[in-house]
Amino acid sequence: MRQVLLVDDEYLVRERLKRGVDWAAAGFEVAAEAENGEDALALLASARFDLAIVDINMPLLDGLAFAQLASVRYPTLKIVILTGYGTFEYAKAALRAGARDYLLKPIDKREFEDLLGRMAGELLEADADRESRERERRQADESRSLRREKWIMRRLQGLEPHEREQASLYMPALDDGNYAVVVVALDNDGDEEPAGTAGAGMPEPAGREGADAWREALLGAGLSRMPGVEWACGPDGRTVYIVANVPNDGGHALTEALNDGLAACLAHTGKAASAGISRIRADWRELAEAAAEAAAALDCRSLAGGGRSFAWPDVASRSGSANLPSVRESLLVQLRLGSGDAARAAIDGWLASCAAPDAPIARLHLLVVEIAAALRIHASDCGLAAGELLPESLLPQTLVRELATPARIRRWLLDRTSLVLEAAAASRKTSPALLVEEAAAYIDSAYADPELDLGRIAARISVHPSYLSRLFKPATGYSVVEYLTMRRLRRAEQLLADGVRNLAYVSEAVGFADPQYFSKCFKKEYGIPPSQYGGVRRP
């Protein structure tokens, strides 16, 4: 119901108006009444009213004076003047004072109800007009905000030139001087079931609305202390901050402010976030390069875990090799043998290598590519639809960035491995496959025996050597002898990587009766003799 204020110094007039008119039929109710204009103004200051019915002749403050004041202070209020003066001059005075209409006393009930109908219609029109203007204002604000964010994101991507006029328009808080770019994203919870596209296990990025709370916490408790900050929300849910006038202290003040903001984000929203920080720059033409540095620095949470900030100078100093030899070949062997535990242990070993302090993010990207390739090859070999088990198009940088944390990356890789193994096992549980698994298991346990050969292996599982040979290579990709040699060389590599340098001991420990033959086989596999080997230990 719309709220009505009755203002008349005569009690009986107010009572007749309250009781003699069907206010509800017009959508009104009498919410308050006053004896003079001063009391009426006080009521208007304490509550909202839609319509005021005001007598023109009252003590202290008459109806015309009240209308003049109220129409200025409360422009949405409709005012109707009641007057006993029927001259045209009084009518004009009432309208000039701000009244919307007037009625002559004594009041005719039908005329009064018609007036209420007109007022209700005008109020509806006013509401619609006000809502339309507000909607247009919001749309204009949103349009300006979207244009601003679009320009900033294009500028960060190097798609817009550095123009001072445009920068002043869209980034007014910034000016010339040292600056840095910060990219912030929520960390995905490693215990949550990965969401996203079917078969891919890809997490959905946090939306704009979901980022509002932690963005406010980050700004309020951290970055607000920096001299100038502008931000934009990217399409992937990440927020990019451009921080100007950064103190030339090696980034310590910015890192401290950012870490305080990340802590406040966790405390206030219960959500952990990570940040990547570019190096401090002075040339604003290099803004896109700074944004790329910040994004690359943030990606390091995939190696070290989230809830912290990563500075590009520290990330760039990671000088370790990205190379992880024999991942695809080693994993394929375990997959073909159906050795889930061994495959998972190997993946954990490779991931541990990626978490080394000097490991570059490229090592993790390469590992994802190699594991995915092995899984796809094995699925294809088993006649499975690989697209149902793995994404059709897998970009390792995108996958690692969206999974974000070591726990989720590990889970994704292990889950995909289990899916492929389970599907392959369901498709090939036949007697020949079981014989190959038994033969391989025997080789894995007895490869150190120099007398071990095809005949002994076949005898162990009670089949003819030629039959075992026909089964083994299609199932594993290796002949029996090649598989035995590979297992011996892998163990030799581990001993050498652990610092064992007595080649005669290594040769004998892995089942080679002749050290020279061992050296020949090792050089053929690794390209260098064992005496010179100092490579990365392979799982």
Question: Cα distance, first to last residue?
Answer: 77 Å
User: Any idea what the radius of gyration is?
Assistant: 40 Å
- Principal-axis shape equals elongated
Low-confidence stretches: 190-210
Instruction: Tell me the number of helical segments per DSSP (H or I, 4 or more residues long).
Output: 22
CATH topology type of the largest domain: Alpha-Beta Plaits
Secondary structure class reads: alpha/beta
Q: What helical percentage do the residues reach?
A: 55-70%
Strand content: 5-15%
Number of domains: 4
Number of strands: 10
CATH-defined superfamily of the largest domain: Reverse transcriptase/Diguanylate cyclase domain
Largest sheet: 5 strands, parallel
Q: Strand order, biggest sheet? A: 2-1-3-4-5
The chain-level mean pLDDT equals 81
What's the structural blueprint in terms of helices and strands?
Layout: E1 2-7, H1 11-20, E2 28-34, H2 37-46, E3 51-55, H3 63-73, E4 78-83, H4 88-96, E5 101-104, H5 109-156, H6 164-170, E6 179-186, H7 208-221, E7 228-233, E8 239-244, H8 252-269, E9 273-277, H9 287-298, H10 301-304, E10 309-311, H11 312-316, H12 327-337, H13 340-354, H14 361-381, H15 396-403, H16 406-427, H17 431-446, H18 454-460, H19 465-476, H20 480-497, H21 503-509, H22 515-526
Helix pairs in contact: 2-3, 7-8, 12-13, 12-14, 13-14, 13-16, 14-16, 17-19
Mind explaining what this structure looks like?
With 539 residues, the protein is α/β, with parallel strands linked by helices. Helix content is 55%, strand content 10%. It has 22 helices and 10 strands. β7 and β8 (239-244) form a beta hairpin. The longest helix is centred in the N-terminal third of the chain and has 48 residues, at 109-156. It starts with a strand and ends in a 13-residue tail after the last helix.
